[in-house]
User: Fold this.
Amino acid sequence: MAMVKVGIVGGTGYTGVELLRLLLVHPAVELRAITSRKEAGQALGDFYPSLRGRTELRFCAPEQAALDECDVVFFATPHGVAMQQARALLDSGVRIVDLAADFRLRDTTEFERWYGMPHACPDLLAEAVYGLPELNRDAIRRARVVANPGCYPTTVQIGLAPLLRHGLVDCAHLIASCASGVSGAGRKAELGYLYAEASDNFKAYGVKGHRHAPEIEQELRRLAGLAQGDPGLRCLFVPHLVPMIRGMHSSLFARLTDSGRATDLQALFEGFYAGEEFVDVLPAGSAPDTRSVRGANLLRLAVHRPQPDTALVLVVQDNLTKGAAGQAVQNMNLMFGLPEHAGLQGIALLP
Amino acid sequence: MAMVKVGIVGGTGYTGVELLRLLLVHPAVELRAITSRKEAGQALGDFYPSLRGRTELRFCAPEQAALDECDVVFFATPHGVAMQQARALLDSGVRIVDLAADFRLRDTTEFERWYGMPHACPDLLAEAVYGLPELNRDAIRRARVVANPGCYPTTVQIGLAPLLRHGLVDCAHLIASCASGVSGAGRKAELGYLYAEASDNFKAYGVKGHRHAPEIEQELRRLAGLAQGDPGLRCLFVPHLVPMIRGMHSSLFARLTDSGRATDLQALFEGFYAGEEFVDVLPAGSAPDTRSVRGANLLRLAVHRPQPDTALVLVVQDNLTKGAAGQAVQNMNLMFGLPEHAGLQGIALLP
Amino acid sequence: MAMVKVGIVGGTGYTGVELLRLLLVHPAVELRAITSRKEAGQALGDFYPSLRGRTELRFCAPEQAALDECDVVFFATPHGVAMQQARALLDSGVRIVDLAADFRLRDTTEFERWYGMPHACPDLLAEAVYGLPELNRDAIRRARVVANPGCYPTTVQIGLAPLLRHGLVDCAHLIASCASGVSGAGRKAELGYLYAEASDNFKAYGVKGHRHAPEIEQELRRLAGLAQGDPGLRCLFVPHLVPMIRGMHSSLFARLTDSGRATDLQALFEGFYAGEEFVDVLPAGSAPDTRSVRGANLLRLAVHRPQPDTALVLVVQDNLTKGAAGQAVQNMNLMFGLPEHAGLQGIALLP
Amino acid sequence: MAMVKVGIVGGTGYTGVELLRLLLVHPAVELRAITSRKEAGQALGDFYPSLRGRTELRFCAPEQAALDECDVVFFATPHGVAMQQARALLDSGVRIVDLAADFRLRDTTEFERWYGMPHACPDLLAEAVYGLPELNRDAIRRARVVANPGCYPTTVQIGLAPLLRHGLVDCAHLIASCASGVSGAGRKAELGYLYAEASDNFKAYGVKGHRHAPEIEQELRRLAGLAQGDPGLRCLFVPHLVPMIRGMHSSLFARLTDSGRATDLQALFEGFYAGEEFVDVLPAGSAPDTRSVRGANLLRLAVHRPQPDTALVLVVQDNLTKGAAGQAVQNMNLMFGLPEHAGLQGIALLP
Assistant:
């Protein structure tokens, strides 16, 4: 394999260290630079104790990074950074995978509403490709700008896609009752995420509105063949915080239409994801646990019909891997013609 | 206060030690005996390290317990024990609080289906009172046999009662997406509940059917004024296992009827539970966390309307306290004319 | 009992909420005021979800607190606050229990070295009494200013006192290998105490020097009858951070002298702490676990002689209760002639 | 690389699944068979959810395993199994790595005392090589039978080796205060390891004697050049149980001799382990955390001199990786002339 020259902007958060864990042992990646103005000069191995001895790389200031000599740049930054730097990189022939939200929402009004800033490059947004490989593989291969999906939206889309594509459910009353490990909140020093606050506890959060809600509905509408904003599709999204480091679980509830009631859901899902290396449809009657995918770029799901007219889909992933950094690498593999699983074959860490 | 003479049958599980924690410092309780054939002779303080130095009591064999001299006997036993011993105790004038399921399901066929044994005393079952004080206080005061509710059913009933009593929701499509700490599984040496299996993990369980499902639907029907078995009420119940010791969280979804859409839900709930010492309706926009009730006989809830036609109720309790032993003590207090909060005023342990 | 009028300065940290948990249900306490400039005006029940509905009290600004009308004021503040306000309160006849370190170190040079500020009132320091009731009960009864001990020092002193008082060990080579739950770090938004950092992890910390080290040696010298600074006593103190909310464990190693080798250590410890309600000497061969004292004002220990010339003492407590707020209440009880266990009889929360 | 044909006996515990996680993606391993009489016929992917889709292999009965066609067989079995089957395998030319204790203790009397059974093949025991590569590399290369070290002994030996080899410490008073995650107890359904018992708790265990104690002293004597049983070396070993899944931490205390006091310990350790890929000596003043090696075949340590005459060495590893399965693979790599790091380059999973 030809080596892909990779740069990372940001990378001091949990998504960043997960990206580094994967890229530093990726067989076709040459990691050229990682930028952080705040940490410039610091060795990665000093910043992340897990990387000691595994790389000589140091954080460097953005202007010294020569990112324009990379083939691809990952943005593991806060929202709003990638859209500021995208055009210059593209002009230098560099492709982009943004792990933040800058290129996820098609509607700039929605973006501004949820992220509190105007969009800096609506034209690039129009060009950007939503990076969920199992549902959008061909476009990703050709993309210059890939919007890596949010973690929750990944589980909800994969879990509902077979039902929506085939018109088997009442789109107006979808429910996603989801749960995430605490790393999903990022590496931020906030009281609510302290061990003594978040441990031995469970709660819902974001009940007044969560940024992943518009992303979920946007992509579900696309799957259902509906126009954006069509009120015929609504998904009530309720996230919960679980005292675990990694892991994400979505319990998805959908009312079946008549054709849905006549469908063998197990066969439908198995067929829909046949051949997908990173989506595992469990046998009928199963319930996936998050630990079974800890650290792996893998999403497991089980489909149930607990009542004649109701489908229940249970989905798990590691929020930092298939929900973020692993999926970003999967996108990169597609963009550069590498085997889709290159660097992504590690087995989940269990127990 | 006159002292209530109390006996406990069983009590070697988590519900048992919680009951002991509460009863040993209850101002109006004289704990006379606790029976366990297996542990007979062992001091409570040796069996439960938390009780060392707090009681001289020892487990004794059932036949040596003189339970017939008690005013009330708690059964903290596996399902099926209380119904075998109830009649003899009642005949001696002893009242009963059963923390297991023997007297919860009104329909003996349902009982047999879910618990795998025929019911031993259908006539006492007919007499038994369902022990959820906030919804059934007067009957409990007079009861000879109280069926202490299941932990999940407690949260679902308290969370939905105001909506059902006033006919504000579509009863046919209720959803309860619930989560429990691991102590809910009891003190059983099973692989799935080992620390190395249950920690850093989240999963749904019981998706093929859970014993609390018929109890939930039975009592919700009662609240809605429907006949037992009426298919006009169905509640899809999906429990999840959370890596925490104690705590239970229920996210309840209900479609509002026209009158429901016209109702101020916050005012409804505040009014419904006004004066209830053990139900705390949070301000609008809140999300309760389980730790806020850790070890307290208290249930906290918040009501939301995330979509115009959907109500979302978030409910928390400590599964061992308000969800089991605390509620049992609350029932006892009612039965013996004690202040309802006697022995139940401990503040939650936070952090 | 006459009611003791109590004020609290500070109280927004974990020690504060634990103090409130105990004082709000203390049978002889009237909580008059709690001050916090930052949170002035906020209801306690809004700040601490566990206290909702349990008090009408609000944080108030210090100048509005009328602390001079209290019988006793607890300082649950950062280090350095109590010593600034102590004199004025004493002049008003108010007694003081400081949960911080202002009055722990007898030597102002040591204080300045470890806490980075000069001592504001050396004369009061000279008067202050070290508040470890089991070792200093009479002085506490009469004290105007009580220095509530550090959490680690409490375990080390109780664990070694019988050996030191009787001259049974080589004082020059004591080792305290200790471990604390994360709440010991306080309620501070620091990266290292985030759930995703502190969970599923174990490490030593403070190995270059910890503020509790001089306090430990000071008090051990006193127990051994040595002058302060005497190099004949040294205790190597190594703290570790455990992924649990509450709990503290100390493994204490001491080389036995000839007379130590000739002593029945089990009998020594049982005798030394006979009659102490809050120190529980376990039977020979035991190992105490921290959960057995969770939320209780209790210290449990076991003494071993794993090698003929070595004593090993294992000690546990809840760092927030017997290690901080519970001990402060115990001191208050002594100071005001209350039963020493008033308000401290809650049983540990297990599981 | 030529492929090594590998068999596994046992493998249904945590050491087994860790071995599978490593071997299934090892570039030079062909996994031929895994035996379990109890699970015979079951697919690995059904038994371990983390392995679903990663192997077609099934457990098979021992007699159907054709282990004699393997190059090497790993025993991930209870103690006592490997010594029964070793000779037949060796006679077929198969080499053995035993992850249990059958070949660790040189003295069969000691083995019988600690493991409660007579040794089945003392002659093979005499031939067996203790598999700690950093201290015994050459012998391992040639070995037919390798005794994979215990987890605790690995940390203690690596941590003390530089001091003992150079005669820098008082061998008669070594102390190892160690801590392990719960997976160290194995995959056994015992009450004490339930989530609700082991979580939010810390305790010492095995204080009356632990099987790793004789192994530690045996190997420390070898390092110190002392005869077996020489009372001039004693190491007091106190293990503790930490509420985490994986991870092991050892705090090692040693009194320095005069030459030890004159030695630059940091330089000593850095020099001693220079070139060792799997031992990382941290910079002076550090404290390693277990999560920094989670899932990695790596041991990190820091050496301190907290008092002029005392050395403190802090050591961490993942008990299942460098403490068990990873070290076993490292031994296999040496035995078959593979690069020592083959299959062992995964980066620790952090957070």
